[in-house]
Fold this sequence. Notes:
Domain Flagellar M-ring N-terminal: 21-186
Number of helices: 8
Distance between the termini: 51 Å
CATH class of the domain at 85-135 and 142-189: Alpha Beta
Transmembrane segments: 205-228
Family: Belongs to the YscJ lipoprotein family.
CATH architecture of the domain at 85-135 and 142-189: 2-Layer Sandwich
Order of helices and strands: HEHEEHHHEEHEHH
Subcellular location: Cell outer membrane
Shape: elongated
Helix content: 40-55%
Strand content: 15-25%
Protein name: Lipoprotein
Structural class: alpha+beta
CATH topology of the domain at 85-135 and 142-189: GMP Synthetase, Chain A, domain 3
Amino acid sequence: MRKAARACGLAALLALAGCKAELYRALPEQEANEMIALLIRSGIQADKMVAKDGTDSIEVDKARFGEAVTLLHDAGYPRKQFETMGDVFRSSGLVASPLQERARFLYALSQELSATISQIDGVISARVSVVLPQNDILDRSPTPSSASVFVKYDSRFDAGKLVPQIKMLVADSVQGLGYDKVSVIEVPVAPPLPVSAPPASISTLAYAEAAIGGFLVATGLAAAAWLARARLARLVSLLPGRRKAAAAGRDILPQGRG
C-alpha cells in the first residue's frame, strides 16, 4: 500500500513538473531576482534555476507563459546589455583607420551613457546618440556637438525631474556639449497591474486530474485489499474447525506439575 501511494505521488509530481516552461535563461542573479519579484507581485508563480556558469533561468507555468513575457517586456525586462569602452576597444589585432576609431569611440560613448541613464530610478530603458562634428581648428564658427536621448520611464515618476538629470549627465560627459544641445524624448509606461490567476489550460488540467485520479484510485484499491484480507482472516478464525483445532492444541499442551 505504501509503495503504491509513493509511486502515484511521484507520478503526480512528474506530471505537474511537466507543466513548467523556461521563460529566460543566462540572466544575472540580480536581474533574475527582480524579474521573479515582479512576476510574484503580479500573481504569477515563478521559479529560479541556477546554471553551472552562475547565471540564472526562470520558469513559469505553461498556462501563463505569454502573460509573463508581456508583463516583463512592459517593465523593460530583460535589461539590454551595453558594451563598455573596454569591450569596444579590445584589441582585435588589426590597425584601424582614424575614421573607424572615431566611429568606435562614438559608439562606446553612447553605450556608456545609455547604461548609466538606465540606472536612474524610474528609467526603464534608454538609448543615447552623440554627434561630434569634425570641425576645422581654424573655423571661426564651428558646428557644436549635440546629443539625443530616448527614454522609457515608469509613469509613477515625475518626468520633470528626470529630464534635467539626464541632460546634465550627458552634457557633463561629452566635451564641448552644452546643456541646451541635449534633447530628450521621454515615453511614459504605465506600471504593470496585479493580475488574478486564469483558469488552467486544458492540458494542465488533464495532467493534474490524471495524476491525482491515479493516486486516489491506487490508494483506494490498496486500502480495499487490506480490509478484505483482514475480514477474511477474521472469518476463518471463527470457523468451527478452526475452533476445534485450537482447543485440541490447548489440550495436548504439557501440564505443569502440581
